[in-house]
Design a protein that fits this description.
The complex is a heterodimer. Helix content of chain A is 73%, strand content 0%. Chain A contains eleven helices and no strands. Chain A has helices spanning 24-60, 66-70, 86-117, 120-135, 138-153, 157-181, 185-192, 198-227, 230-235, 254-264, 267-302. In chain A, helix 3 packs parallel to helix 6 (157-181) and helix 4 crosses helix 6 (157-181). The radius of gyration of chain A is 27 Å and the shape is globular. Chain B has helices spanning 32-40, 86-93, 123-129, 144-154, 161-171, 175-178, 191-203, 221-234, 247-253, 276-281, 286-292; strands at 46-57, 60-71, 75-79, 103-111, 114-115, 130-133, 209-213, 239-243, 256-262, 268-275. Chain B is globular, with a radius of gyration of 19 Å. The chains are: A mainly alpha, B alpha/beta.
Chain lengths: 304, 297
């Protein structure tokens, strides 16, 4: 073996200095290239978000004012200046609330069934079904609720809530399953060994331990539903420009309002649409951050 | 159980306790005095009777033909090499294997004369009487107080809960270390403290039997010594069954010891069951002797 260095594929010479030898230089290069690629991909993903936020802020931030948040909707076609997002904000909140009240228990109970009770075969079938459900184009969900509810009872906040619940259920269920499965089996054993019935164990130990993931899943589902447009278009088109609180009536929602403002095509309405887009984005962000802060605090209180 | 000190050895049999009877809910309500007298008069009940118990996991036989009796207020140790089925057998005693797919048990396994796997036996009820502490400490992600109080609360033992929690923590020799931070998370405790908390959690509902599955194997020597002292103290009130891979530990804590090993076809089986003194000083079987003298393991 030469005293100068080590050749690739040979046993290294222990007398050689510890600087890279053999093909280490090449391997280091490959490694660096790979890291660069992953960083670039991650950067690209974040860049898209930043550009979106930037444009929405650039075009929309100037719209924000107290009256924009509270005023009645702008007149159709932009014929009359003024108008704000008040009824749309309230309507979005109302529709999302209805959707989540339905979707949260259904989603979480489905997840509990799948992670705690279901046999392997049924589990696989149901998991696939949930995945398919998450992949259903939301316009189809809208059509479904249109045929099932709107055709009989007319458009309403409840109809939109039902449609968005269908969007939310698979999101909540799938992420909840993941966090329920991450609860260590040793905790279930510990609870079993205390002679406590399973449902108590689930409520008292397993759900609280998985709460973090379930809350996160719910918030993501809420954020997703808040931005959904297609199902709401078919189930809940607002009448007039004023506030509407009755859930049996159609209410305005922010995404549908954005669409209508854009369709008007006037400079003033497009500006308002940007404002509304910026508002929607900001609200979703706030809900996300707020929920995480609350969660962190409640966990600390529980002593995790 | 308060009856047991008056019973003659002949009378103490598997028929003594009726399911759901008045004594069943509080089997461990012994005062120290009556416990001591129970020990001196040697009026022991047979808690577990195993006759020809075999266990299969699917097609694989894990344990074959175990016949033994476990007596009350003794610490009974199961020792043996890895894979000999000692943990499997321990987990059969409170039906912790039920949830394992393919688990099948044959033979008779009686608890105070009642068939543990009989049609009338409810596994939640079984575990309420026969508690278990596991190899790795597994406290709930709750406060220290709630870890101990949770099961009691769920079982409806809500009266004097604070006293119950204190008593359990005292009997697990943990009270002095945690009394000022009962509301703090159990996950902040050291490994040894967590394991003692798990013992406190198990005894808080006053079971009849406490099963311990290698409770000190993840602990340092000081924590191990604390757990062993605890076992010795607890057997005045509870029947203790402990699985250990540590022979010195069995010698230190156990009154009786069962040696499990693998037979020629590598199936776990009971080789010898004796008082600890006899098993370690005059083993009756060559395989026991080979194991305790360190020739295999």
């Amino acid at each position: 073996m030469s005293a100068l260095g080590n050749t690739p594929g040979m046993v290294p010479n222990p007398m050689h200095s510890l600087t890279p030898s053999g093909n280490l230089r090449r391997r280091q290069l490959t490694s660096r290239l790979f890291v660069t690629l992953t960083v670039a991909a991650a950067g690209l993903a974040v860049a898209v978000l930043l550009i979106l936020v930037y444009y929405a802020a650039k075009n929309g931030a100037s719209q924000l004012s107290l009256s924009f948040l509270t005023a009645q909707l702008p007149a159709p076609g932009g014929i009359v200046p003024g108008g704000g997002m008040g009824p749309a904000l309230v309507g979005t909140a109302e529709v999302i609330l209805i959707a989540t009240i339905i979707a949260l228990p259904v989603g979480v109970l489905t997840a509990i069934y799948l992670s705690e009770f279901a046999g392997r075969r049924i589990g696989r079938v149901l998991t696939t079904a949930l995945e398919q459900m998450a992949g259903v184009p939301t316009i189809l969900v809208g059509v479904f609720i249109f045929g099932l509810v709107v055709a009989h009872f007319g458009q309403s906040a409840i109809a939109a809530g039902l449609a968005l619940a269908i969007v939310e259920v698979p999101l909540i269920a799938r992420a909840s399953i993941e966090s329920l499965r991450r609860v260590p089996g040793t905790l279930r054993e510990a609870a079993d060994a205390l002679g406590v019935a399973r449902w108590r164990t689930i409520l008292g130990v397993i759900l609280p331990t998985a709460a973090n993931g379930i809350v996160t899943a719910t918030i993501l589902a809420v954020a997703r539903a808040a931005g959904e447009t297609a199902p709401v278009l078919l189930t809940c088109l607002p009448v007039g420009q004023g506030y509407q609180l009755d859930p049996r009536q159609p209410v305005a929602t922010v995404p549908v309002e954005i669409l209508q403002l854009l369709l008007s095509g006037q400079t003033s309405t497009v500006d308002k649409a940007w404002g509304a887009a910026f508002l929607l984005m900001g609200l979703i962000l706030l809900v996300n951050i707020g929920a995480r802060v609350w969660l962190r605090r409640s966990e600390r209180k529980r002593g995790v | 159980m308060s009856l047991s000190s008056e019973e003659t050895p002949e009378a103490s049999g598997p028929h003594l306790r009726l399911p759901g009877g008045p004594t069943a809910g509080s089997p461990a309500a012994l005062s120290p005095e009556s416990a001591a007298s129970a020990r001196s008069s040697v009026a022991r009940e047979t808690v577990f009777t195993s006759r020809g118990v075999s266990v299969n996991y699917g097609a694989k036989r894990a344990l074959e033909n175990v016949t033994l009796e476990i007596e009350s207020n003794y610490a009974t140790a199961f020792i043996g090499p890895s894979g000999c089925g000692k943990s499997t057998f321990l987990r059969c005693l409170n039906r912790m294997n039920d949830s394992i797919t393919g688990f099948k048990i044959d033979g008779d396994l009686l608890y105070h004369g009642h068939d543990l796997y009989g049609s009338g036996a409810n596994r939640v009820e079984v575990r309420r009487r026969i508690g278990m502490v596991f190899q790795k400490p597994n406290p709930f992600p709750k406060s220290i107080y709630d870890n101990v109080a949770w099961a009691a609360r769920n079982l409806g033992m809500k009266q004097d809960l604070d006293e119950r929690v204190e008593r359990a923590l005292r009997s697990a020799a943990l009270w002095d270390e945690v009394k000022d931070r009962l509301k703090a998370s159990a996950l902040g405790l050291s490994g040894g403290q967590q394991q003692r908390l798990c013992i406190a959690r198990a005894v808080a509902i006053e079971p009849d039997v406490v099963l311990l599955d290698e409770p000190a194997s993840a602990l340092d020597p000081i924590a191990t010594a604390a757990i062993e002292d605890l076992i010795t103290a607890l057997k005045s009130q509870y029947t203790i069954v402990i699985v250990t891979h540590n022979m010195q530990q069995a010698m230190r804590v156990a009154d009786k010891t069962a040696f499990f090993s693998l037979d020629e076809s590598r199936i776990g089986t009971l080789i010898e069951y004796e008082t600890t003194d006899k098993l370690f000083s005059r083993p009756g079987d060559k395989r026991t002797e080979a194991y305790i003298t360190g020739q295999f393991g």
